[in-house]
Amino acid sequence: MLTRYGALIFAAGFAFFLFVLFAGQPLGAPPMTVGRAVLDQAPAAVGAANIVTSVVLAYRGIDTMGELAILFAASTAVGLVLGRGRGHAAPTAEPGGFILQAGVDLLFPLLLVVGFYIILHGHLTPGGGFQGGVVLAAAFVLPVLARPAEQPSHGAMAWVEGLAGTAFIVTGLAALAFDRAFLAPLLGAGQLGALVSAGTLPILYLAVGLKVGAELASLLLRFTEEEAAR
Amino acid sequence: MSQSSLSILLLGALGLVGIGVGGLVLSRNLYRLVLALAVAETGGNLLLVLAGFRPGAAAPIIEPGRAVAAMVDPVPQAMVLTSIVIGVGVQAFALGLAIRARAAYGSLDMDELRGRMEADIDAEAGAPPAASQHAPAIARLAGQPEAKP
Amino acid sequence: MTWTDLVVQVMTVLVLAAAFAAMFLRNLLGAAAATALVSLGVSVLFVVLRAPDVALTEAAVGAGLGGLLLALAAKRLGLWRIEVQEKTDDGEGKSC
User: Fold this and answer.
1) Could B91 and C5 be called an inter-chain contact, meaning their C-beta atoms sit closer than 8 Å?
2) pLDDT tens across A121-164, in order?
3) N or C: which end of chain C has fewer CB within 10 A?
C-alpha cells in the first residue's frame, strides 16, 4: 500500500516538474534560434517545399538513419521474442467474412496508390516515407486478415527491406564521393515545388518508405500468424 | 488562436503525461502498462509540438507562387516525427515481451509474475520455497533470517 | 471565440477523457480502443497547431498501426472476448 502512495506522489511530482518547466516557457513565442535559420536557408539550399522533410532528411539525415536502425532492431527483436520460422498459419484458420474479403479486394490497389503517392510527394506535401510506408504495410497485412491461409513470404520482405536499406546508405555514401558530407543532398535543388526536385531527397524517402513498409508488415504478420499457429 | 487556448493545450498535454505516468507506476497489468506508455508518449509529443507553435504562423510548407509568410518552428516537428515512429517500435517490442511472459508464466499481473519467477529461480537454485514474497530471492539464497519458512 | 478555440477545447476534453478511459476501463480491448482514440484526437490538435506532417504521422502510425498492434496483441493474450476475460481473470480486477 505504501508503495502505491509513493507511486502516486511520484506521478504528481513528475507532472508538477513538467508544469514548472513549461510554465516558464514563452508559450506561443518560441525562440526559434535554429528554426529561423532553417526556414531562411532550406528552400534555396535543399529545394524541398516541405521544410520538415528537408530537416528530417537533409539536416538530420544521420538521425533518420538511426531511426531506421531502431525500427529494424525492434522488428528483429519481435521476431526473436515471438519465435522464428514456427509461424505458419494453421489450415484451420477460417477466412474472414464476405464483407471483409470484398472490402480488402477493393482497398488493396487503392492503398498501394495512396502509399506510393504519399511517399513520392513527401518533399512537396505533408507526408513522406514513414507515413506512406505504414500505409503500404497496412495494404499487405489486410489480405492476411481476410484470408489467413495465404501468407506472403517473409523472405521477399526481407529482400525488399535489405535492398531499400542498402539504397539509403549507398545514396549517403555517394555524397562522400562528391566531397560532400555523408547523406548530403546531391543533384542540385531543382525548381521549388516540382515533382523532380530537391536532389536525392525523393530517392532517400522512397528507400525509407519501402524499408519501413516491409519492416512493419513483417512485424504485424508476426503478431497475426503466431496466433493462428497456437 | 487565443492565449487561453494555448494554456488549455498546455494543461491537456501535461494531463496526458500525468495520466500516462500515473498509470505506468500504479497499474499492475502488463498490457495496461503498454497503454499507459503510449498515452504518456502522445502527451510528450503534443508538448514538443506546442513548444514550437506561434499564433498566426503558417505550416512549414511553401506553396510556390505565394509569398512566404511567418511559419512555425519546423525543428520540433521533425523531432516528433522521429519520436512517434520509434514509439510504435518500442510498443511492439513491449507487447511481444508481454506475450512471451504470459506464455511462460500464465499471468499478466506483475505481482503474480514476480512470485512465479522467484519460485522458478528458487527451484533452479535448489533453495526451499520462501515464506515471504517480498524479500529478494538473492537475500533468501544467502540464508537471511526471513528465508526460513 | 473562433472555431479553432472551440476545436481545441472540445478535443482536449475528449483526449483527456479517453486517456482516463484507457486507464480505468475493465475491458482491456476497450482500453486499447481508447488509447487509439487519444492518438486520433491529438492528431486533430496537431492540425490546429499547424503541424500537418506530424498529424498525418500520428493518425497513420499512432492511431492506425498502434491500434492494430494493440488489438492483435490483445487477441493473442486472450483479452479479445469479455466472457473469456472474466473466466481467466489475469489479476485485472486488482490493477488500478
Assistant:
1) no
2) 888 888 888 889 999 998 888 888 887 777 777 788 888 888 88
3) N
Q: What is the pTM of this model?
A: 0.83
3-state class of B71 per DSSP?
Answer: strand
- The closest alpha carbon to A61, from A172, A166, A165, A167, belongs to A172
Report pLDDT digits (tens) over B56-68: 777 788 777 666 6
Pick from B102, B86, B103, B93: which is nearest to B30 by CA?
A: B102
Chains contacting chain A through 3 or more C-beta pairs under 8 A: B, C
CB contact under 8 A, B39 and C51: no
Residue of A180, A212, A215, A213 whose CA lies nearest to A199: A180
The CA-atom distances, in angstroms, between A74 and each of A68, A70, A121 are 10, 6, 27
How many CB atoms are located within 10 Å of the residue C1 CB? 9
Residue of B nearest to A15 (CA): B18
Partnered with residue B58 across adjacent β-strands are B71
CB-based contact A114:A135 (threshold 8 Å): yes
Phi, psi of A180 (to 5 degrees): -110, 175
Q: How far is CA A208 from CA A95, A143, A188, in A?
A: 32, 23, 21
Please report the residues numbered 46 through 65 in chain B whose beta carbons come closer than 8 angstroms to any beta carbon of chain C. Answer: 46, 49-50, 53, 57-61
Which of A 74-103 lie inside 8 A of B, CB atoms?
Answer: 74-75, 77-78, 81-82
Check the CA dihedral B120-C74-C18-B1 and report its sign.
positive
Contacts of C68 (CB under 8 A, 6+ apart): A138, A141, A220
- The Cβ of residue A89 has, within 10 Å, a number of other Cβ atoms equal to 19
Joined grid coordinates for residue A195: 515533382
Residue A163 DSSP SS3: helix
